[in-house]
């Protein structure tokens, strides 16, 4: 444990699994009080148990990021439990159906956009009034390499490009109130989301991995350290940025 985020409260959505869990654990390990938010109670509780077993401080809040009253309650619980909010990592997301655009259903389109994009907007809507009360508040939104290039299904790519646009728009608007807002754009990361795809389309994932200059997928902790850097005072002049963490694939 160290003290980089001591006395800070960090809220992480989608923290019951994968990248969100790794970020929640990283913040806790570095001294933050962590609000573990997820729709999945089992995964979220497991993250809290792991943080507590390692000597950290965390609380679980069940949330559907597409439900405005859930999101409002999530932010209120964070502030009531730990007296304020300093950092938010808006990360919950789904891959959705990978079918070609012409075969996509309205339901899948709407679900991917609702969770991946509207969920990030809703979270910021309730986080920002709390973060502007804080000295040096920071938001990191999870986009994707698919937010910077055509690297996923049509709805996924559209949702992740949307997260980049939303991040830039909010970053410019809220900078003078002392909040920095950035996005992280991971390439392929070894998480349950990718493991599910691996089971269904192992060839596609193997091909994707071969395309990586580093010749491997990222581990969730490699995204977590980037999120933590973006949220830290070390990145005090980084704002409105969409940072690829993709092993050089975009190069
Ligand atoms: P994951 O499936 O391991 O974790 C996603 C978490 O989000 C789960 O715990 C899930 O329960 C939660 N979630 C889903 N819908 C929710 C909702 N409506 N409300 C609240 N929580 C909800 O996936 P991951 O790979 O860790 O993905 C995390 C984020 O990173 C996503 O936004 C994803 O698009 C993005 N991403 C992942 C990769 C990758 O290769 N794994 C690459 C680029 C971007």
Kindly report how far apart the N and C termini lie: 35 Å
Total discrete domains: 1
Structural category is alpha/beta
The name of the CATH architecture is: 3-Layer(aba) Sandwich
Mean pLDDT: 95
Structural commentary:
The chain is of the alpha/beta class. It has a single domain (9-191, 219-237), classed as 3-Layer(aba) Sandwich (Rossmann fold), CATH 3.40.50.720. Helix 1 (18-29) packs across helix 8 (220-231) and helix 3 (68-82) runs parallel beside helix 4 (106-131). It has a seven-stranded parallel β-sheet with strand order 3-2-1-4-5-6-7, sandwiched between helices. The mean pLDDT is 95. Helices cover 47% and strands 16% of the residues. Helix 1 links the parallel strand 1 (9-13) and strand 2 (33-38). It is globular, with a radius of gyration of 17 Å. It has eight helices and seven strands; from the N terminus they run E-H-E-H-E-H-E-H-E-H-E-H-H-H-E. Residues 13-14, 16-20, 38-40, 43, 63-66, 91-94, 115-116, 142, 144, 186, 188-189, 191-194 line the site of nicotinamide-adenine-dinucleotide.
């Amino acid at each position: 444990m160290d003290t980089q985020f001591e006395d800070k409260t960090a809220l992480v959505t989608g923290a019951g699994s994968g990248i969100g869990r790794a970020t929640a654990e990283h913040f806790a390990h570095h001294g933050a009080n962590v609000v573990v938010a997820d729709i999945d109670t089992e995964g979220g509780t497991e993250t809290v148990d792991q943080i507590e077993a390692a000597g950290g401080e965390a609380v679980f809040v069940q949330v559907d990021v597409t439900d405005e009253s859930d999101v409002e309650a999530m932010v209120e619980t964070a502030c009531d439990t730990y007296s304020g909010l300093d950092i938010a990592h808006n990360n919950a997301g789904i891959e959705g159906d990978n079918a070609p655009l012409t075969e996509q259903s309205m339901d899948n389109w709407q679900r991917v956009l609702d969770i991946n994009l509207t969920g990030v907007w809703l979270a910021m809507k309730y986080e920002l009034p709390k973060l502007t009360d804080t000295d040096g508040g920071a938001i990191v939104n999870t986009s994707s390499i698919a937010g910077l290039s055509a690297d996923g299904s049509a709805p996924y790519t559209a949702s992740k490009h949307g997260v980049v646009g939303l991040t830039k728009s909010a970053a410019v608007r809220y900078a003078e109130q002392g909040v920095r807002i950035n996005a992280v754009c991971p390439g392929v990361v070894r998480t349950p989301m990718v493991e599910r795809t691996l089971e269904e389309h192992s060839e596609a994932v193997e091909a994707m991995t071969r395309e990586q200059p580093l010749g491997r997928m990222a581990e969730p902790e490699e995204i977590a350290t980037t999120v933590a850097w973006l949220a830290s005072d070390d990145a005090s002049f980084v704002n409105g940025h969409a940072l690829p963490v993709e092993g050089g694939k975009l190069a």
